[in-house]
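User: tokens in, sequence out, please.
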């Protein structure tokens, strides 16, 4: 199957290796359009890539030409963004990562990035100290949160004389990352996937509320993965600071009651439901209309349980696939099995939230999947976006097993 790829090349000593990447992509059947920054042209001439790809290399946002040609070039970044399936940048310098993270657009490649809606693969290469700098780490975190694939550099001797992480990953490894995205199955076409994400906030007074540490990252990763695999996706989200995934219908709610209403309203067209939201367990039924004033006296509040949305869906799910989530600090497997049965789920995704570096607010997780068939699958630590695809892989296997058992 032929794919179309934009190869961005930024200005680092590893730019010459981008020629090997272009060759690897072409040998696997891709058409490749190379875009070079001005700094990249100081290391490798555009003619090298033109000879490899058979296409003119794009080097300027506004090349010198006739007025008619200038008008065409002024919107060329939009045309390229719409024509090509994937953007890969190798090497991605610290400067380019910063521009992408901040949304700065001062040349063709950075402007193209802002207009591009497909998958993005970034292969950083730089000095070890630059790689470890807090600014670079924050920029990488931002880009990962957007769902971009980062092909981390390797360790070894660098052109600057230092030894450590910063060497561009081998071109074949970068090509593998590209085709892992391009060849992703469209196995959810025809499905309507309903995902809940984030926390809820239950008012205590006009300025205070009960909530939890959920960032919504797992639910948003699930929504993004489902859309990438061809599903129509409805994402019901509590208050989070994440951007809406591309191609997803986003419904914003705040309280557990609002989430319940939004979910039940959108239940009929759904074929797969993933309840990844961390809904507050208790709420104050009659919060005061005025702010509670602080005094020296102890304050007691009587809290009522919030509606059990997962159990309510389980009671009326019919032939839909229902996935619940359990965030636990102890007895994970036992609690996952209990919840799977009591809520009538087909799969229960359990994770520990008392382990540093995973769970709430983290970009990574490690999961235990408990199936209605009795099978248990352990997914080792990985990015939440990667785990989202693994959940769908196992869920589709589960559906086949359930159908075969009927």
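Assistant: Sequence out:
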């Amino acid at each position: 199957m032929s794919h179309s790829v934009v190869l961005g090349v930024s200005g680092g000593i590893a730019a010459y290796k981008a020629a090997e990447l272009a060759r690897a992509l072409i040998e696997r059947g891709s058409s490749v359009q190379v875009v070079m920054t001005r700094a990249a042209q100081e290391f490798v001439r555009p003619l090298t890539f033109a000879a490899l790809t058979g296409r003119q290399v794009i080097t300027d946002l506004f090349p010198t030409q006739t007025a008619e040609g200038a008008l065409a070039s002024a919107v060329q970044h939009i045309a390229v963004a719409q024509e090509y399936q994937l953007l890969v940048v190798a090497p991605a310098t610290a400067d380019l990562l910063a521009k992408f993270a901040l949304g700065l657009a001062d040349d063709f490649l950075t402007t193209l990035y802002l207009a591009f809606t497909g998958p993005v693969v970034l292969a950083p290469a730089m000095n070890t100290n630059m790689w470890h700098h807090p600014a670079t780490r924050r920029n990488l975190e931002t880009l990962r949160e957007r769902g971009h694939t980062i092909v981390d550099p390797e360790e070894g001797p660098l052109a600057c004389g230092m030894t450590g992480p910063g060497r561009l990953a081998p071109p074949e490894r970068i090509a593998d990352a590209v085709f892992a995205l391009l060849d992703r199955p469209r196995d959810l076409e025809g499905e309507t996937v309903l995902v809940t994400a984030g926390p809820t906030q239950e008012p205590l007074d006009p300025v205070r509320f009960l909530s939890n540490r959920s960032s919504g990252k797992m639910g948003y990763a699930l929504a993004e993965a489902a859309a990438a695999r061809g599903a129509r996706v409805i994402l019901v989200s509590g208050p989070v600071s994440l951007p809406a995934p591309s191609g997803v219908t986003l419904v914003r709610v705040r309280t557990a009651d609002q989430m319940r209403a939004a979910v039940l309203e959108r239940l009929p067209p759904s074929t797969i439901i993933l309840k990844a939201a961390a809904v507050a367990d208790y709420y104050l039924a009659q919060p005061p209309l005025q702010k509670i004033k602080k005094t020296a006296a102890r304050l007691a509040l009587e809290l009522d349980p919030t509606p059990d949305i997962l159990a309510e869906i389980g009671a009326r799910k019919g032939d839909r696939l229902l996935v619940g989530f359990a965030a636990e600090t102890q007895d994970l497997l036992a609690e996952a099995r209990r919840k799977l049965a009591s809520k009538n789920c087909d799969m229960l995704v359990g994770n520990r939230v008392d382990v540093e570096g995973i769970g709430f607010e983290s970009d990574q997780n490690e999961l235990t999947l408990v199936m209605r068939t009795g099978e248990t699958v352990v997914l080792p630590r990985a990015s939440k976006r990667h785990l989202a695809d693994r959940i769908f892989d196992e869920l589709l296997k589960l559906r086949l097993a359930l159908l075969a058992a009927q």
